[in-house]
Each structure stands twice: as structure tokens, then as C-alpha cells.
Design goal:
- Keywords: NAD, NADP, Oxidoreductase, Signal.
- The protein is globular, with a radius of gyration of 16 Å.
- Helix 2 runs parallel beside helix 3.
- By secondary structure, it is of the alpha/beta class.
- Helix 3 links the parallel strand 3 and strand 4.
- The protein is about 40% helix and about 15% strand.
- The chain has a domain of about 100 residues: 3-Layer(aba) Sandwich (Rossmann fold).
- A three-stranded parallel β-sheet has the order 1-3-4, with helices on one face. The protein has a two-stranded antiparallel ribbon with strand order 2-5.
């Protein structure tokens, strides 16, 4: 039994993810189950959302989970065991109006983890995606005209 250790991670900050994964592996030696369960979303018309915000959503919802997974994966492969779970969203399967960046990032994540599942079968590593329907989450109310502030976490 290991004492719990709190490690803060901003999943949208791709540059720090590898260091955090290394810290976890140095502390515990391995990760048996990796659950990717963090995301950001924004609501707005495509023409109203900046490309910068589109990229931030993609970093958090796609590049964040795959970067963390790729950092932990070699350890799982060498041990020939592990479970990787992506908590995604139904919008990874279907898109709805005013959620283009979010849906696109979730579609990309589903595609990546579906491919990973097939590749990891030979190493006895289980890869699952969970796509629940709409959920309540924390929301910051934006100032009028400030779409960047309309981020769900």
C-alpha cells in the first residue's frame, strides 16, 4: 500500500505532462490503471471562437491525454499489463451545433484510443473509451463578447 500523493497537472500544458509522468513513475514504479478524465469545452458559433481557443481545447482534450498516455505506455508495455481508460463524451461520436472545437477534439481522441486499443492487444494492455451523454460540469460565466472566458472545466 502506498500513501496517496497529490500531483497537480494542467492537462492543457503539454510541456509539463512528461515531467509529471516521470515523477509518478519514479515515486511508484508503475501505473496499473491510467484514467484520462479531464477536458475543456466552450460553447459558441464556429465563427465566434478564435483559432487560439480551438487550439487550447485540442491541447486539453486530445494532446493532453495522448501525451500522458504515451509517457506511461512504455512502462505498461515492458510489464505487459495495464489498463488505459479515456472518459470522453457522446460528442466524440456525434457533433451538435455550437460545440465544434469540443466535438472535434473528442472525435480525435476516440480515433486515437480506438487505434491504440488494437495495437496494445498483443501486450495484454486494455484500452477503453467511455462516452457518457451530457453531464453537469463547472462553468465560468463569460463577460459579454468574451468567448475565451466561456470555458467549461
Amino acid at each position: 500500500t502506498y500513501a496517496p500523493k497529490l500531483i497537480l497537472l494542467d492537462i492543457s500544458d503539454i510541456n509539463c505532462i512528461r515531467d509529471v509522468a516521470k515523477e509518478i513513475l519514479n515515486c511508484y514504479g508503475c501505473v496499473d490503471i491510467l484514467i484520462n478524465n479531464a477536458s475543456m469545452k466552450v460553447k459558441g458559433a464556429v465563427q465566434s471562437i478564435s483559432l487560439e481557443l480551438d487550439k487550447k481545447i485540442m491541447d486539453a482534450n486530445y494532446f493532453g491525454p495522448i501525451t500522458l498516455t504515451k509517457a506511461i505506455l512504455p512502462n505498461m508495455i515492458s510489464r505487459r499489463t495495464g489498463q488505459i481508460v479515456l472518459i470522453n463524451n457522446i460528442q466524440g461520436k456525434i457533433g451538435i451545433p455550437f460545440r465544434a472545437a469540443y466535438a472535434a477534439s473528442k472525435h480525435a481522441a476516440v480515433g486515437f484510443f480506438d487505434c491504440l486499443r488494437a495495437e496494445m492487444e498483443e501486450f495484454d494492455i486494455s484500452v477503453s473509451t467511455v462516452n457518457p451523454t451530457f453531464i453537469c460540469s463547472y462553468h465560468r460565466q463569460p463577460e459579454p463578447g468574451n468567448w475565451e472566458a466561456s470555458i467549461w472545466k
